[in-house]
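Team,

Forwarding the record for the chain on the shared tracking sheet. I've put the sequence and predicted structure together so nobody has to dig through attachments.
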Amino acid sequence: MFTTAIAGSLPKPAWLAETEKLWPQWKAQGDALLQVKRDATLLWIKAQEDAGIDVIGDGEQARQHFVHGFVEHVEGIDFVNKVTMGIRNNRYDAQVPQVIAPLRLKGRVHAFEAQLARAHTQKKLKFTLPGPMTIVDTVADRFYGDKVKMAMAFAELLNQEALALQADGVDIIQFDEPAFNVYMDEAADWGVKALERAAQGLTCTTAVHICYGYGIEANNNWKKTLGDEWRQYEKVFPALAKSSIQQVSLECFHSHVPMEMMKLLEGKDVMVGVIDVASTEIETPEEIADTIGRALQFVPKHRLIACTNCGLAPMTRDVAERKLKALAEGARLASQRYA
């Protein structure tokens, strides 16, 4: 009854890159790097299938970072002279490239891993792209002088790649927008408009992932300042409910997000986060089924998808594999309970 999926990223094997890092250094170069990226992608496709996950992703194995994996294929961006900039409303500092000229794609961005994944699974395939607002928050603007204008420029490029991914056979294209939980008023205004521009013309399923970040120290510390109720979703969910985006991914398990927020997404499929990415403790099937049961007070059965809160990239491979298995087992238990 309940489809299972991951938010996007999975840990990189030690022979591909540094482990348990969001900005890992590759362990190979050139053709050798391409080969190990291929091997890691195939490994995680098989691992997801073995765990019983229904919607398969590439695990973002060919990307060093979920944003920069896209923007490094864009002309008009200086990656040589990076600058330090506070991102996510200065939650933490990052070394970011600078936009110095009109933006244009150099060519296809993710054809290699999308076509590889499509050729090696018969299950539904989801592919993730960074959302335009989150990209804007992760680069330094030295050209446009207007973040809305720059967001729309990135949205056009995202749309080009999304249409090509659809032609590659991708079933679901998801845009990752953690910035929506930081700049709430702007997200509800131009953020959703830029998102819809990125998804323009797509006939495959479209999705947006909005979380409270990876389970890293900076994000965990930020969450401690948010109080007993996290109501950030309250701003953007009504705008998304009116949008053409079909699925919305949200953080739920071990969070302080009031579950009734899901009522604001009437008419949308809801990817309910039932796996905590900030803890190495493995969820039990009972815990996952319980979370799904509580979410069913606000989401119709046919619209609920069991998902992870966020990506699993900073975790160990063993923990990630065990969490995938728990996700599938918990969804099966929930299906038995609530059929």
